[in-house]
Amino acid sequence: MASKFPEVQGGGSLIIAWQVKSKNVLVVGGGEVAAGRILHALNADAQVTVVCPVSGLNEEVAFRVSEGQVTHIDRNFEPTDLEGADMVLCAIDDPDASTQVWRLCKEKRIPANIADVPSECDFYFGSVHRDGPLQVMVSTNGNGPKLASIVRKKIAETLPDSMGAAIDNVGKLRKKLREVAPNPQEGPKRMKWHVQRPTLISSYPN
Amino acid sequence: MASKFPEVQGGGSLIIAWQVKSKNVLVVGGGEVAAGRILHALNADAQVTVVCPVSGLNEEVAFRVSEGQVTHIDRNFEPTDLEGADMVLCAIDDPDASTQVWRLCKEKRIPANIADVPSECDFYFGSVHRDGPLQVMVSTNGNGPKLASIVRKKIAETLPDSMGAAIDNVGKLRKKLREVAPNPQEGPKRMKWHVQRPTLISSYPN
User: Which residues form a coiled coil (chains A, B) (predicted)?
Assistant: First the structure.
């Protein structure tokens, strides 16, 4: 019997906006995949450390090291590298070493992604469109990275160029509004605000 | 000086597809916000436990309890509820109790989201469009939940209705291909596959 509540559609992921601002993200490896991970992490204002022998750095990673955008440890991964790490992104072509990184992360309860080993991932990456404060992430839940990329491009073409700027402006207005009518104890009220807008499934802030 | 590598655009989040399949997700609270969290978690195949006095359950949460979609603990949160929890989503109108949940989660290194308290969140939710295996998540990085919802709707209108089914079909083809040409040790090769497609920033699987 159909209920009036949304039906559960299994098979998805919990897509979330992880907050890594000023958090320590350790990237193990320095090749093309690592370069993508590093850019993702830097775009989210993380403190990024890359552990990889200098000979293994690709041009982009070497550039980010030389610009001081990331901290570089010029050797292969060692377990002590995990001290203080809030997240680990591993992208090396060595299944045994990868598995060791994964196991250590799980012992220490550090969220981790071992590239290309779905079973050794707390989370996957998707294809992300970025326009200022706006981020749109496309996941096909393992059915095809190429398709995710195509969908992302289609979305990017569709959204007005001004969307990022418009969102920026709304953000500024909201900020001003808070200055005019500050209310530090508004937690419960805002929770109510959610409740009054049943079509809005997302939570503040997003 | 402009470099040939993508420029870092700070101010974003690390948007990721968290894997909660068969993982224990504890939802603290049973109101409208909790109902949204529960649906998100169920859509990602999590094992969901809701801790909330039965009097505090809204109609949707009560429905999911009665259908056996979630496990229900009929009382307020207690620290022992965190035993075995892989993720905690807290949505109660009690700032002190919320903060206690957050602190305990951080002691135990359990990823957590305290609704409406950005400083007590490892991650935020966004507005999600779902079509079969396809998930598209919109985040405005705190600049306006309403706008995220508008952008999501616009994207949903734009994408062809057949997109989810098309992705499903590609997934089936990929699976068949793997059966025909299985290669369990293909990690390094797939890593190369990434490398050969520089326009593809996303990782397998997504």
Answer: none
